[in-house]
Amino acid sequence: MRRRRFWLMFGFVIFLLHNQARAADPRLMDVHFIDVGQADSILIQTPQGKNLLVDAGDEGSGKGLADYLHSHGVVVLDAVIATHPHHDHIGGMSAIMKQFQVKAFYMPDLTHSTRAFRRLYEAVRREGIMIFQAKAGDKIDVEPGIKIRIVAPLKGGYDSLNEYSYVLKLVDRKNSFLFMADAGEQSETDLLEKRVNVRADIIKIGHHGANTGTTLPFLKKVNPDAAVISVGKGNRYGYPDKAVIQRLRYLKIPTYRTDLLGTIVAHSDGQRVSFTYGLENDHRSGRQKKAVIEPSANGYNKG
Ligand SMILES: [Zn+2]
Fold first, then answer.
1. Would you tell me which of 10, 60, 69, 102 could form a disulfide with 74, CB atoms 3.0–4.6 Å apart?
2. pTM higher than 0.90 for the full model?
3. Residue 273 C-alpha to ligand 1 middle, in angstroms?
4. Residue 123 domain-assigned?
């Protein structure tokens, strides 16, 4: 009897170790642009096994998102970041807070907030999660070689709540990612004016590819090797906008869209970035496609 319990216990430990190993590849940082329809959610898994979530889709995303995190070995979220108070970014968050241990929660200090945001804020307080009302210039040291810098919003007085989005720069050794959330032209202009270093290898295009931003001067300054658009298939807004796609084509920036490819995962080894999609997560097709982006391979000269 005692022996049987030992073996049961042993099996459980093996299972835990196996899960840990999945999450903690010794070299790679994985950035998952999760297909949450017409919404945003990004999971970052670091070489040392840390998990960070930027936005959590809309109200309907909670369950699917939780399943996705579970299937990728997530037990603890070291940080959850809400970029701004719109429902397509924070709607699924309270479901996530209930199911995962969240070590730290980052959100902008916005006085004009939405009801969804206030509800989330209350959930965070109820769960006793540490809140950081971070602002531009603040930095999250994730682990050696990996950090997230909050680069915007730089100002106030914007027309739209979208312009108050956190713009985040994730740096993994020599690689960098710029997550625009729903920031648009006003925030982009302020970043250019203040000469903030927005240069990045990969850009997550602002506002689901709407023509409210992704201006040509800004794109040129970021000078990315690839772009990702998180957008719902057949969404009623007609995103991504043709003008945005044309600008990306004009600059020869390969573009990955969740409405066409499903969940897209960028793998960073600190030197270069490769993508998989179509998907390791789609159990129906079981197929996985691979694309490797060589630095500067898009023919557009680095400035
Ligand atoms: Zn949005």
1. 69
2. no
3. 25
4. yes
Q: Three-class SS of residue 246?
A: helix
Distance 185 CA to ligand 1 centre (A): 15
Distance of CA 41 from the midpoint of ligand 1 (Å)? 10
Report how far ligand 1's centroid is from the alpha carbon of 4 (Å). 52
CATH code for the domain of 244: 3.60.15.10
What is the 287 CA–ligand 1 centroid distance (Å)? Answer: 29
pLDDT tens column, 79-122: 999 999 999 999 999 999 999 999 999 999 887 778 888 889 88
Domain tally, the chain:
1
Enclosing domain of residue 209 = 2-293
Residues 193-207: pLDDT tens digits?
A: 999 999 999 999 999
